[in-house]
Structure formats: structure tokens, C-alpha cells
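Reviewer comment 2.1 asked that we show a complete input and output for one of the modelled complexes. We chose the flavin-adenine dinucleotide case, as it is the one discussed in the main text.
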Amino acid sequence: MVVCIKQVPSSTKVNIDPETKTLMRGGVGAMLNPFDEFAIEEGVRLAEKHGGECIALTMGPPQATDILRTALEQGCDKGYLASDRAFAGSDTLATSRTLASAIRAIEKRDGPVDLVICGQQAIDGDTGQVGPSLAVRMNLPPLSYVSKVREVDLEKREITVERMLERGTQVVRSELPAVLTVVKAINLPRFPSLLAKRKARTRPVEKLTLADLDITEADTGLKGSPTRVVKIFPPEERKIASVVYTGDPKESAGKLALDLAKLLGHGGAS
Ligand SMILES: Cc1cc2nc3c(=O)[nH]c(=O)nc-3n(C[C@H](O)[C@H](O)[C@H](O)COP(=O)(O)OP(=O)(O)OC[C@H]3O[C@@H](n4cnc5c(N)ncnc54)[C@H](O)[C@@H]3O)c2cc1C
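Response of the prediction step:
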């Protein structure tokens, strides 16, 4: 099983590179994408129940190793960091292409992957596209918004899940392997014990670079990203003023009506 996790800025105060229009993450704190905690927990629970390994994978800069360590503390058996200058600036298509190729490389090293689990969305890019796009790149069934894994039948090579819809729940049975994106309602992530944290230190984190993948520089990073960011700007700050009307309620109501009329451009209202 592979759980895809993303490192996201822990602050909203990030700058944009004026030339590439990409986020400048340097100097900003980073953390595990909160939605991915649920993906990790589900992967670890399924590995505990059905056997096999739960492997955490992230594509990011070297500092993203920190979130792999968090995943190991939460019970993952191994971590993979897909990191290479060539991956920088990837949009959702290039990200999913790179992750798909990284998973194929993991399969060569650690054996076949039955399930790929992603979070519902990342709190920075916020598109929710990577999971389903990853399924397409891997030619696997995408099961999105999963709120419960009902059953995994390894003999029949099937998984039955509940999908959270706007009105109600859909029960879906799919063949394995499959790609899941999970919602927060799926579980309550564990709080790692001291022992789990100590055990995590002995678990391996391996690195994958472009040379380890079956894609080229043209498939990943800015070169492999068809998304063109034409303009990016912070929303204009809205000025909020407050006026308190005191005294006689009738007079205050009259003043309020006049002020509102002025604001709406009916200055002469009486
Ligand atoms: C218009 C636009 C332009 C962008 N341009 C750039 C750019 O030029 N440079 C740049 O750096 N970023 C850019 N980004 C951000 C970049 O596309 C996304 O950060 C990245 O592709 C992941 O998409 P997302 O954050 O929307 O993830 P989502 O699709 O919301 O994430 C869903 C799930 O996918 C998995 N996942 C997502 N990303 C990763 C990852 N890196 N590793 C492992 N698992 C992952 C996680 O399980 C996550 O919960 C851009 C985003 C947009 C919307």
C-alpha cells in the first residue's frame, strides 16, 4: 500500500515568484497536509488488518523528509522522498505523472502495490485533482471521497467502500489495485506513543530522483506542466469601518437611513 502525502506551508504568508508565478516556500514553516493524516491512518489500519506494508510517498524538496518521519511515527513502515530539481514547479498533471512513476519504481523495489491512498485535497494547491489524476496515469479505478472502507477481499482482489456524496452515501465495489482519496470522516488519526516515535527512528526513508523514474525531464516540473499562471495577486484588503449611533432611537434610525442612502449613492434622500 502507498499513501501519498504532501508538505504544505504552515502559514498563509507565502510570497509568489514574480517570474515563474510559483509559490516561494523558502523561509516559511511547513507541515503535513492535514487531510493526509487520515490517509496515513487508513493505510496503517488496513496494513494492520490485512498484512503487508504501508509506505508513505511524498514529492517535494529535501525538507519534506520531515513529514515522512511524521508518517513513520503514525505507523508507516517506510518512506520515499521523490526529490529532484527537475520536479520543481509541477502542476497537478506533472505531480500525478511523477507520483505514478515513483509508485512504479517502488513496486520494482518493494513488490506490487494493491492500494494507493491520497487525502481529499491539499490545503495550499487545494485542487483535489492529484488523487483522481494519479489513478488515470496508473490506469487504475479512482475511488474518491471515501468515507469508509467496508471490506478488502484479497482473494477476490476486490475492495468495497462508501463514498460521501452531497446527499447520502454511495457504496462502490471495485477491483484491486485502486486509488482512493479519503475524507476526514473516515477515521480518527492516532496520537503516536513514545514507543511508536522511537520505533519510527529505525524505519528507512529512501530517495527517488529523476534517474530512478521512467519519465523524462519533459514530463515533470515546469517543463511538464501545461498550466499557465497568467496573473497571481492577493485579494484587495477590504476596509471595514464601524459607526455606532447613540441617543434617541428615532433620530439614530434617521441618521442611519441617511448614511446608508449616501453610501448607496442616493445622497439627497430625505
Ligand atoms: C493554477 C495552479 C498553478 C500552479 N503552479 C505551480 C507551480 O508553478 N509550482 C508549484 O510548485 N506548484 C504549483 N501549483 C501547485 C501544484 O500544482 C500543486 O501543489 C500540486 O500539483 C498538488 O496539487 P494540489 O496542491 O492541488 O493537491 P491536491 O490535488 O489538492 O491533493 C490531493 C492529494 O494528493 C496528494 N498529493 C498532492 N501533492 C502531492 C505531493 N507533492 N506528493 C505526494 N502526494 C501529493 C495528497 O494525498 C493530497 O492530499 C499550482 C497550482 C495551481 C492550481
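The mean pLDDT is 93. We note this here for comparison with the apo prediction described in Section 3.2.
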